[in-house]
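Onboarding guide, step 5: your first structure request.
Type a short instruction followed by the sequence, for example:

Predict the 3D structure of this protein.
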Amino acid sequence: MSVRHSFYHGTMMGALAFASVALASIALGGNGMERSGFDTSCMDRRARPGNDFYAYANGDWESRTPIPADRASVGTIGALDDRSRDQVHAILEEASRDPASRMGIAFRTFLDLGQIDRVGLTPVAPLLARLRAISTSQSYVAAAGEAGRRGVALPIDFKVEPDDGDPDHYALVVSQSGLGMPDRDYYLSDAPAMQQARDAYRRYLGTTLSLAGVSDTPAAAERLLAFETAIAKVSWTAAASRDAQRTYNPTVFDAAGSSGEPYPLSVLIHALGFRTGRAIIRQPDAVAGILRLMGAAEIETLRNMLIVRTMHRYAEVLPADIRDSDFAFYGRVVDGTATPEPRWRKAAGFVLDAMPDDISKIYVARHFSAGTRAAAQAMVDDLIAAFGRRIDAADWMTPVTKIRARRKLASFKAQIGYPGRWHDYAGLVMRQGDAFGNAERAAIFQHDWEAAKVGRHIYRWEWSATPMTVDAFANYPKVSIVFPAAILQPPFFDPHVDSAVNYGGIGASIAHEMTHHFDDQGANYDESGRLRSWWSPGDRTAFEARTAKLAAQYDAYTPLAGLHVNGRLTLGENIADLGGLAIAYDAYHASLKGKTPPVIDGLTGDQRFFLGWAQIWRLKYRDADLRRRLLTNPHAPAPQRVWTVRNLDAWYAAFSVVPVDRLFLRKEDRVRVW
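The system replies with structure tokens like these:
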């Protein structure tokens, strides 16, 4: 079970970027912003709120906003991500003028495509030669360990996370892996789009192997695709992999690796530098199945998988033909984008991945105020109080379980803006003109830092995101909620505008992360962050009946022809959206202290609250991106996230929603969890 759940999965600086357009035209400016904090120019007043509240709030924006050629989607969060990236870009441009600056050297060198193309495959040639020389299971294990330390994906995934059963310590976590495409459905589905993706992937494999110097590439690509397809068949679905109880399987290994298998898990673990004889296995039968497939596979197939994954991992610091081949599949086919993003964005992403806190310290000093941090903390306090009242009022929960729920709520640790301590990257070397070497050294540095944590006490100061990340997070074992600086700005949060929009935006976002600790998986963790049941059987039954109703509600949505929202995969996020919005609404009204809010921009306070929620989900997708998200992402698409309003009685009153409206639900069909 992942220990971190995000408000919006996918906007992390340094990771695959999601799209936005100019800040002035989307969500951060426009008519009415100076008065209410809600951009009324984005609304489609012709749409009935009760038929499609997303279209009513955002329809004119959607109709006039193109998706840039280098983006998979465009939206409010992408606009904030653009702002953060521009601010990071400015920091790095300054650093690049300092010949002694480590991050300046890294940025300059990554930008220098001329140098990267001139040296060609020379930097990676020794590694490729070692991979091509693999001829036995022993040499494969050694090469896999070397590649894994360099960030190359292996048939099985190894990560270091807090131990769900002992949240004061780190553990090694072993999971299924081995797929070069986003999800098992890309291999197994008969849908035309999936068949086309497989054809494109087959071509990508052949091209990449050929560029790496492998002979007979069509046959090699076919065998590799068949091997990955076999892995897909034994892999768990994304929805099944969310189950906190099923995915917690502590296992002790024979340190000598004497199981008789060609690739004992313990040998792979030690080849990667993890000094432990214990791990948590997330999908035991899938991991065992992958190990069996590895044992039966031809050594050439395992070798070629390492070669392809190495080329993919380092594509951006390798010559143009490799970059182009990589983008042709992962950019055009998987994301649906027409052109790569600007090189400076990729360079900034690399530096952020390699040494995030060197940039973070400067960013926080320039772009995040103590006043904003204090205002956000005050809102957190208001929302915790509102959540407590919701727990007290829950008619389906017994008094004993309410006491435990209150205890867990009191244990929350809010981390706002930036961490209290920064990482030190002493020993990480960046060299001018050595883009591949810089990327390789950064990956090894990060891997070794993580590997050294196994068995140690948790670093409670450490964040899994940067202050520049436009997202928010819940961490179950740490019982924490995290709100980076970059999300604490308009349209999510502006202390100087109407409180209704703030509560609908950042208020619902904060309460969303709180609710994650009580969602279908977070509720399995007690007030200390330990995976341990604390519910009475009756409470659990009542809770599951309500959440099953919510899952069924989302199963009925079909955002893309032939693909519906997976109510089970998205259940945790849908519970958090629903609970977060309800809690924020209560907190907003408590903040009014009995006063009637004014009408602003022709909108009542309750209308502005719900529109504040809707505007943070302005998001327009390419079909390929939406398809990937529907198959893999635990969040529902943006319109359906907005539609959670149909479960709140106050929304019906605010917008005069009646039974003939498409989003109308009878009172008995409206879901209320918290």
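Each response can be followed by summary notes, for example: Residues 10-34 have pLDDT under 50 and may be disordered.
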